[in-house]
Amino acid sequence: MSTPHLSAAPGDIADVVLLPGDPLRAKLIAERFFDDPVCHNEVRGMLGFTGTYKGRRVSVQGTGMGLPSLSIYAHELITVFGAKTLVRVGTCGALQPGIKLRDLVLAQSASTDSSLIATRFRGMAFAPTADFDLLRRAWDSATARGFAVHVGNVLSTDTFYDVDEPDGWKLWARYGVLAVEMEAAGLYTAAARHGVRALAALMVSDSLVAHESLSPAERQSGFAEMVTAALDAALGT
Ligand code: HPA
What digits encode the pLDDT tens for the residues 98-124? Predict the structure, then answer.
């Protein structure tokens, strides 16, 4: 049975799934790292592929941007296709002065300004949290690859362009939040609901502190290195 957003058949998708926001990045990951990749989804152009990495079956699925879009794919992957290990591989904007472009942020927890989770918890505050074993292994793998790795709280925001309060991020920074992105809190909440494992590994693509950013071309090299660290963490290879 396929789902409204994934045209795959049960068994077409592995129980370990990498989740980039950008579907073309899913294609790049599959072409670069997977043996025998097969495209399992083209619905809405949200490409997904399944292949093998170091002999282990693995999938990569684009999620789009923001908690609602990611939450749809995470829900269907977990409840219909049996995903058990979900690792977001994305980019983030640094909120702290010690975090530099191309550093790696592993989201131990994910705060959010989205109403999505607060609504589900009737106004109470759930704390979306990474799987510790995945986090530990990603840390080992990324530090061994030479990354400067930061572990802590990230902000999953609904607002990329905060036109009314451009300095709104400073509230979160004051409380030690490391970086801003747009999906991790949704992923951790979906994983918690269904008792599966999740992690978000985020390469720093821009800094709200230093007002600098990587060009799209500059993002590619560090990103690939992060994907290998994420694959090793997710597969235990
Ligand atoms: N804001 C939100 N999401 C992001 C950013 C940012 O600055 N950089 C990468 N993802």
Answer: 999 999 999 999 999 999 999 999 999
